[in-house]
Amino acid sequence: MPTSPDSPLYNSRIFDSYLKLLRKRYPNVDTHALLAHAGMKRHEVSDPGHWFTQRQVNRFHEKLVQATGEQGIAREAGRYSASPEVLGPLRSFFLGMIGPEYIFYFINKIAPRFTRSSRCTARKTGPREIELTVAFNEGVQENPRQCENRVGFFEAAFLLFDHDFPEIEHPECVFKGGEVCRYLIRWRPSLTNRLLLAQRVISLFLVAGLLADLFYNHTLLGPALFLGLLAYLSFTLLSRNVERKALLSSLTSMRGSSERLLSQVQENFDRALAINEIGQVIATRTELGEILSSVNQVLHKRLGYGRGIVVLLDPQRNTLVLQGCFGLTTEDEERVRSIEFPLAAASSPGVLVSCFRTQQPVLVGDIEEIRGQAEPENYALISALGVRSFICAPIVCEGEALGVLAVDDASREGGLLQSDLNLIQGIAPVIGISVRNAMRLANERRLSDQLRKASEHLERRVAERTSELSQAYAELEYLYDSVSHDLRTPLRVIYGYGELLLEGYGDKLDDPAKEYLASIIKGGERMEETLDRMLDFSEVKSALPALQPVDLSLMALRIMSELRITDPKREVSLEIEDGVVVTGDEKLLAGVMENLLGNAWKYSALKGCTRIAFGQNDGICYVRDNGEGFDMAQAGKLFLPFQKLHDGSRFRGHGLGLSMVRRMLERMGGKVWGEGRPGEGATFYFTLPPADTR
Question: Which transformation does this protein catalyse, written as a reaction (predicted)?
Fold first, then answer.
């Protein structure tokens, strides 16, 4: 993928060496102005994990030459990179090689630590000659001073081994029309190599002198041999001394490097433990307060951050609220709690709010950078707390921002770095998962408590309603019995005197009066029948069923024979299945069959031929007729007392028959339902449980 001027290409260690050179040799240069002109920050340069863009590098070199007045400052900085304070652990790595030429054999592995702009390869072209080729990635356009800095770095490789400056030719350069930058590096032997060479020459001279002494005059060769031996010992001591110094220097560098590496290993170990402990917190804590308190302790104990806060969203107030902190005194904590973080503020939102809104981490290397962004009173408080740099990381779960984690360490020299930002950025989502789980669990508990209270309230209401219904039902049953018994006597008096009037004074009454008396008598008789049915309806509930085998086929034949006597001229077609035997109360089943067959007989009276069928199919008994039928939309009224689906002037009835059928079947553990169509008849089905289940 092609790079752009704003792609991060150059490691901060390159420019850290520039700043160290300026502090040592150009102390009058204003490094703050230099970095500001380049768009760099001091903490970014100090962070070995930070990378700068080509645009920033160009502005840096432009201002650097202007500030120092040195056109060759880039090459000088490249040479200075060989110093111990710049290379750090890499110095020990380089010194562990046999000679400077071996550094270039590993250049393709070393270069990516410093630049992403190019690829560097090396090949040996002579005993002390190497050709280096730098090929730039697509879209990269460096400036000439970067080429000079690269040459200075090549020279620094030889300075590490106390070599003289090598001879470097630059036959091909991208700034002179070349496709790549090609360098030819030649060098002379080092001091150690020269001493060893002199030692070997003298040793050969001594061997030749000793052989000549065997054959020639001892007097002439003695002084020469003595001088040669003295020279040999001198060169030997000198070379050993040089080697010892080089070895001591290498060991010193390796010791410092080892200490730094051990410190880095300990830091990585503490970070791994911190992440592990945070994972344990998530697995063992369910309360939000406990989770935040434990996480804060881990951050403070394992990672060494001096202070930190966790602010979470308050949806009702639409603001960020402090939920946890560490490293703050009680007084400071109260002062921090007084800070408002409204999310809907029209003015400058502040760092924490911006971090929450954008869900992007923020590293503030110097609080001076946010002076204009923060509220004056908030900035004053942060400054009073001694905050110099801090990190904000959004607490996010499933793409939703829940809050912000912010840490700082006033005791750390140089402030927080990119590596700290990467660590906190990795921890914040883990906190987000635990916070979301704790919130969901709290909501579930709250909902469960509400449901439990609602259930208890509903149970109380149901119990109250049940008690009220039971009492009302008992009163209704009492009223049923009372009305049925108490109305019977005055009713008989009414229609009884009517009969007496009709019999004793009928000849004295005109025809309308006789009709009135006849209507009174008939009404009284119907009312008495209704009262009888009401008594039967009430008795059905209190009667205890006597279960026994009952032949419903024989019962249906008997009932139909009695019905045919009431209307012997009617044309009737009967289909009664033989052998339908069920287990139930004979008296109750007689009431069921009388009502169902009686209704079939009554509602089919207006048909040219009455067709009635009774039978059983898969344990379900049925009574079918071709009578008036009914609308299924009104089927819910079939089994309610005093509910009639047909005109009372055409079909007499009191509206209690089917309700009594249902009650009688329920007393035996059965059920009943009906199906019909207007003008096409009806079918009523009923079931009884098997005898062995009662």
Answer: ATP + protein L-histidine = ADP + protein N-phospho-L-histidine
| Alpha carbons 219 and 212: distance in angstroms, whole number | 12
Dist. CA 239–CA 680, nearest whole Å = 128
- Residue 576 confidence (pLDDT): 92
Among 207, 164, 212, CA closest to 185: 164
How far apart are alpha carbons 639 and 641 in whole angstroms? Answer: 7
- Mean pLDDT of the chain, nearest integer: 77
Exposure of 230 by Cβ count < 10 A (0-12 exposed, 13-18 middle, 19+ buried)?
A: exposed
- Kindly give the pairing relationship between strand 129-136 and strand 181-186: antiparallel
- Which 3 state secondary structure label does DSSP give 328? coil
Q: Is the pTM of this model over 0.70?
A: no
- The answer to whether the CB of 100 falls within 8 A of the CB of 132 is no
Query: Is 607 within 8 Å of 615 (Cβ atoms)?
Result: no
* Higher-scoring residue by pLDDT: 188, 37: 37
pLDDT 10s digits, 181-213: 999 988 777 666 666 666 666 666 666 666 666
Q: For residue 596, what are its two tokens?
A: 């169902």
H-only helix segments in 487-615: 488-504, 511-542, 552-566, 586-603
Gap between the Cα atoms of 200 and 176, Å rounded: 46
Six token digits for residue 400: 């939703």
The DSSP string of 649-689 is TTS---S-HHHHHHHHHHHTT-EEEEEE-TTS-EEEEEE--
Task: Give Cα 393 distance to the centre of its chain.
Answer: 17
Maximum separation of any 2 CA atoms in the chain, in Å: 199
Closest CA to 368 of 42, 49, 12, 67: 42
Rounded CA separation 294/106 (Å): 47
**Structure tokens given for 164:** 């003289």
- Asked which of 42-56, 167-181, 182-196, 458-472 is least confident by mean pLDDT, the reply is 182-196
Of residues 448 and 216, which shows the higher confidence score?
448
Phi, psi of 38 (to 5 degrees): -85, -5
Residues 484-506 pLDDT 10s: 556 666 766 676 777 777 777 77
pLDDT of 556: 93
Average pLDDT of the residues in 316-343 = 82
Amino acid letter, residue 56: Q
- pLDDT, position 481: 60
Dist CA 672 CA 662 (whole Å): 6
Q: How many distinct helices (H) and strands (E) make up the chain?
A: 22, 19
Asked if residue 539 has pLDDT above 80, the reply is no
Distance CA 466, CA 219 (A): 142
Please give the share of the chain, as a percent, with pLDDT higher than 70: 68
Dihedral pair phi/psi, residue 226, rounded to 5°:
-65, -45
Distance between CA atoms of residues 339 and 317, nearest Å? 14
Tokens coding 58: 């160009």
- The residue among 170 and 221 whose pLDDT is bigger is 170
For 561-587, write each residue's pLDDT tens digit. Answer: 988 888 888 898 999 999 999 998 888
CA atoms of 611 and 645, how far apart (whole Å): 21
Look up residue 683 and give its amino acid: T
Give the whole-angstrom CA distance, residue 23 versus residue 623. 112
Query: What type of residue sits at position 393?
Result: A
Distance CA(439)–CA(425), nearest Å, equals 21
Q: Where are the alpha helices (DSSP H) in 285-329?
A: 288-302
Distance, CA of 89 to chain centre:
41
**Is residue 58 a contact partner of residue 142, using CB atoms and an 8 Å limit?**
no
Which residues have C-beta within 8 Å of that of residue 458, sequence separation ≥ 6? none
Distance of alpha carbon 391 from alpha carbon 369, whole angstroms = 13
DSSP 359: T
CA distance linking residue 66 with residue 399, whole number of Å:
48
Residue whose tokens read 């881990």: 298
Q: Say which residue the tokens 């039902």 belong to.
A: 473
